[in-house]
Amino acid sequence: MEVMTSPVRNMPNSKQLQNYPDDAQEFGYQPEWGLYTSSFVFRGDFTNDLKLLQDKYGYKPLQVTQQFDNQVTDRNLGTIISSVAFRSSDGTVHTHRHPGDIDETPELFQYTPAYYDMTTIRNIIDWFGDSVCRCRIFRQEPGKDLPMHYDFDNERNSFDNQNQTLRALIQLTPNTENWMRFKSKTSDITLRPAAGQAIVFNADWVWHGTVNYTDKPRDCLMLILKDQDFVMNLGKRFPSHKIEFIEV
Amino acid sequence: MDEVKPYKGSYTTHRVDDFAGGFDPLKGFYISNILLDAPWEEDLNKLRPMDLECHPHYHQHMEDRNFNQIFQTLSLRSIDGEVTPTQPPPGQDEDPDLFYYTDAYHNSPVLKRVCDWFQFPISRIRLFSQQPGQTLQFHHDFDNERTGFDPNNVTVRIIMALGDYPDAWYRLANESVDVTFRLARGQFIILNTDVTWHATVNNGEVPRHTLNFIGKRNDWIENLVKPKDILEIERVQV
């Protein structure tokens, strides 16, 4: 019997055995329009670090440049998100904004005292290497929802698809009822990420929203990354469907 | 960006209607923001899943994946109306008119309500029980190969979790998305399994039960996946 080969990237047909990932070299995460949620999970006790952030530095409402005031008002961000920074444009914990209307690059930012105080969270930040730009705790207040939206990181680099600015989110608090939804060009994904699991996406193109149905803050580590090859290779570095734990 | 509505920059505000992407049944998948709920455990406990009987054309894939060691299955809708899980032969479309509900469907009142909630033309419905400690390697299936990949006759699968299994994971990969995740009880995936590489892991100590539907894309599915501005987890009692 003749069978047709799939029109999508020449996938093997039913007469051929399949061998992943060799048969799927052109598959997997693409930074511009894609979404990556990791098959690896950072495993560590984040409790002491999070308590120290609260007690020593405190959280302040998310701060943006004046250009984005309309977005803050439209999404009511001031009541939904608060933050404390590990890496910021002036090296202080309560500067969250980007320094201007220029491309976001790692050399524009400095580690804050909060970064140096961390014992486990710092190991995650360091794992991502030299491409980390801004880095902070994204705290979603209890019961607060962030509607579906996109951001403007790549507007500042004229959407250069060889120089993309990507966001990584890693939830640090146990996830009972924290949900995220992502809408890419081909897929629509609602999930409850595991604590320690990494999510990476281009926040200009991939629509995203989040709900916190619990009575506790949802604390996520958010990193803005500038090395798209590093991120594209995560799927190849961790090709197995089995879950791998990275102790931090 | 030809398939996408014009980008609205930072000097404007935007709403979800400004975006034209999302679930593409020819290329991608949908992981639901809907969670179905009903007390189906009593029905589930009465069912006795078994080995899948595979058409000889697909034997090599069954053996390659070690399927019957990983899964036990049982049909609620099948090509012969029997609970024994079987497959249509290669070349035969998953035409819903050719399939029949089985005794397992008729004798499972709560699961029947769940099946009936899905308002798309359904060919097969099976209970899949992934055994503890078993993993299914990355693979894709051949539902649409049988129709020559006709874009006007797209076969999709829906996989719905019948429990919360904290150690059971799925990984799906297509041309741009690579996601590893766990389904919540009553949450479901809609996917084109010809074009989405998929794998599952059950690291837990109990079987991971899912209802697996095969059927045809229709307007009900198109409407189901439309997002709203506000992200809501919709809990639906059936």
What structural keywords apply?
heterodimer; A: 248 residues; alpha+beta; Jelly Rolls; four-stranded antiparallel beta sheet; 7 helices; 30% strand; globular; B: 238 residues; seven-stranded antiparallel beta sheet
Give a verbal description of the structure.
- The complex is a heterodimer of chains A (248) and B (238).
- Chain A has 248 residues and is of the alpha+beta class.
- Chain A has one domain: q2cbj1_9rhob like domain (Jelly Rolls, Sandwich), CATH 2.60.120.
- Helices cover 17% and strands 30% of the residues of chain A.
- Chain A has seven helices and 13 strands.
- In chain A, the strands form two sheets. In chain A, strands 1, 2, 3, 4, 5, 7, 10, 12 and 13 form a nine-stranded mixed beta sheet that branches. A four-stranded antiparallel beta sheet of chain A has the order 6-11-8-9, with no helix packed on it.
- In chain A, a hairpin with a 4-residue loop joins β8 and β9.
- The radius of gyration of chain A is 19 Å and the shape is globular.
- Chain B is globular.
- Chain B has a single domain, classed as Sandwich (Jelly Rolls), CATH 2.60.120.
- In chain B, a hairpin with a 3-residue loop joins β8 (168-173) and β9 (177-181).
- Chain B is of the alpha+beta class and 238 residues long.
- Chain B has helices at residues 41-46, 59-65, 67-70, 103-106, 109-117, 219-224; strands at residues 29-31, 34-37, 71-78, 100-101, 122-130, 135-139, 155-161, 168-173, 177-181, 188-191, 197-202, 208-216, 234-237.
- A seven-stranded antiparallel beta sheet of chain B has the order 1-10-7-12-5-3-4. A four-stranded antiparallel beta sheet of chain B has the order 6-11-8-9, with no helix packed on it.
- Helix content of chain B is 15%, strand content 30%.
- Chains A and B meet through β1, α2, β6, β8 and β9 of A and β1, α2, β6, β8 and β9 of B.
